[in-house]
Amino acid sequence: MGADQQVYLDDIEVGDELPSLVKTCTTRQLVMWAAASGDFYEIHYDLGFAAANRLDGLLVHGALKHAFLGQLLHDWVAPGGRITSFGCSYRGTDGPGEPLTCRGVVTAVDPGRREVAVDVWIEKADGTVTTKGPATVELPLRSGTAAGVP
Amino acid sequence: MSAQASQPDLLTDDLLAHVGQPYPPVVYEVTRPGVRMWARAVGFTDPVFYDVDRARAAGHPDLPAPPGFYGTPVTGADGIVPGPPIRGLHPELTRSLNGGTAYTCERDVHAGDTLVATTAITSIKQKASATLGPILVISRRTDFARDGELVATLTATVINY
Fold first, then answer.
1. CATH of domain A7-138
2. Is A5 in the B-facing interface, judged by CB distances under 8 Å?
3. How far apart are CA B28 and CA B110, in angstroms?
């Protein structure tokens, strides 16, 4: 994540894919996320509670999957870029132990605003997309104009 | 449950009265331990979220808030964050699932910041789910301000079933 790895707006084209990020949650991570986020809903760590709610197993928090997409974007734009928005809807559930691949593709480039629009999503090993949404980032130019706001 | 020819109307006036109802603001503290704990829970490997020297070398005044993080709410002994409820709004729909999350960042946030969050339910809709039956889709938006200036918005969508 050094400056040598900086992506620049000049080099981005529609259709470019972001470097993917694979996340495999442990139940420990789900508890860490519960504490960090303050979401202590029991379907994420109490198997009996989950079963009583018609669920086959524990669920990865939706907001944690959103945060994974934030990491995907951060690792792509750091250190000189800036994430301005990212959202997702939850179309399917994911459980601990499953490899979840976070991916993204560039959908638009706005050189005037130094802004890049991307679609980001999470897919299971079989390709099923469980989480997807739009995001926008600001990227620096090779000429040296840094992205970001005061 | 028996099959029903038509869905019950869940959208009562009492329920819809929640839309737009104002709640007192909640203070969020962005702290170094909070930033580290959140970054560690997600699995960030960039030292900028853990090491103050690395953060400053990268041009930040302190540890930057990871994307989507807006601090820890100041709460009392019960830990309850006051605000509009998005679960259990209808007595017959006691379960819930997360439907979506959307975040916008207007200004960068760092450890040491104190944010004031204002939250309201922005919409309540009834839909039919093939697997869950009649559901309510509830959206709630929180605006985070620092010194009166908007720095971030968070919209959470929750499904009650």
1. 3.10.129.10
2. no
3. 12
| Coil, helix or strand at residue B57 | helix
What string of DSSP letters covers B81-144? --S---SSSSTT---EEEEEEEEEESS--BTT-EEEEEEEEEEEEEEEETTTEEEEEEEEEEEE
Separation CA B135–CA B128 (nearest Å): 6
pTM for the predicted model, two decimal places: 0.91
Residue A146's pLDDT is what? 54
pLDDT at B86: 83
DSSP string, A17-66: BPPPEEEE--HHHHHHHHHHH----GGGT-HHHHHHTT-SS----HHHHH
Return d(Cα B22, Cα B143) in angstroms, integer.
12
Cβ neighbour number for residue B112 with a 10 Å cutoff: 13
- Determine the Cα–Cα distance for residues B68 and B79; give it in Å rounded to an integer: 21
Q: Do A149 and B108 touch (CB under 8 A)?
A: yes
d(CA A35, CA A29): 10
pLDDT (average), residues B7-19: 88
Interface contact A88-B42, CB threshold 8 A: no
Query: What span, in angstroms and rounded, lies between the C-alpha atoms of A56 and A45?
Result: 13
Helix (H) or strand (E) holding B35: helix B32-42
- Domain coordinates of chain B in residue numbers? 1-29+79-161, 31-69
Q: Which CATH code fits B1-29+79-161?
A: 3.10.129
Closest residue by Cα to residue A81 from A107, A116, A53: A116
The arithmetic mean of pLDDT across residues B58-70, rounded, is: 97
Separation in Å, CA of A75 to nearest CA in chain B: 8
Task: Compute chain B's Rg from CA coordinates.
Answer: 19
